[in-house]
Fold this protein.
Amino acid sequence: MRIARIIAPLAGILLAACGSADKKAAETPKDQLLNTLSAAVAKGDILYGHQDDLCYGHAWKVEDWEADSLTRSDVKAVTGKYPAILGLELGGIEMGDKASLDSVDFNLIRKAALTHAQRGGIVTMSWHPRNPLTGGDAWDVTSDQVVKSLLEGGELHDLFMNVWLVRMGDFLESLGDIPVIFRPWHENSGSWFWWGARLCTEQEYKDLFRTTWTYLVKDRGLTNLVWCYSPNSGISPDEYMSRYPGDDVVDLMGLDHYEFLAPDGAEASGQRFADELRRSLSILQALGIGHNKLICLSETGLESIPDLEWWTKVLYPAIADYPIAYALTWRNAHDQATHFYAPWEGFEGAADFKAFSELEDIKFLD
Ligand code: BMA
């Protein structure tokens, strides 16, 4: 039994704050999406999300994006339903590339977003941009000058403002009224991306986030973005807030938390994962109430899911009592046998995922 009754007042506040749903219709796509998420939280629902669903899955991918009606989904093949939240990845858009860093054509990404929205689903977008200073990828942490170089006064500021953000703005604008949970500069409490904790100062990180927000929202006038801030788990409330860019530019407080299987086996690893998740979600819940923001588990998962009852015995009990709007598991790579985070047809742990999808408070797309 979840705690919908306790958090319903919070959702009420949020509804009032983002467009007075009881007085007049929501005005912007962003308001509408926030209202939808608030309503789900008020009911005690948790929406399930899957990264890159519709674009590809375990050992298959969409070949012809124009002809394909995007009806295939690993999640649907197992549960009969599409995920409620579709995660999509924009890494490479800043370079003007035709396809993302995961080789998904940006036309397909746009079509997947529109198709999913037309089916009644919600879209979220992440961004793993390349390292503009070294020419490496998002994981290139060889320089701690990258964020600084993009900010005002930096050698790459012009590139950032007049090329990177323009390309991002063009793509997001091309989605029209489709609302998007936009989640740039994520997992910044770790130091595995060039915008991570040891790679820039707190102020530089905040400036990076705020510069991105100001360009897309103020300069471009985009009204379809719900802004999600999502550091990694394993942090204190102070650490969460130390790089928080501000209530005026964040709509959704998120958190990424994965399970990694340790040599002591699935049971011990699952226990540690669940304990840390509960600890992190308790912190997030308190911060969400304090800042009047919805909260979510923006990324989670166990690669290859060797624990065949992970969904109902590990993940669900860890999240069920928290007012998170959604929980999203990462992608099922089409070209790597073990890089998957959701079951696919024929996977031996599929039954447990189906059971998870049938839980009363876990919502897929009906
Ligand atoms: C990572 C992995 C990578 C991928 C990246 C961006 O976690 O899945 O293979 O390129 O996300 O989607």
About this structure: Residues 89, 91, 101-102, 128, 330-331 surround beta-D-mannopyranose (CB under 6 Å). Confidence is low (pLDDT under 50) at residues 3-23.
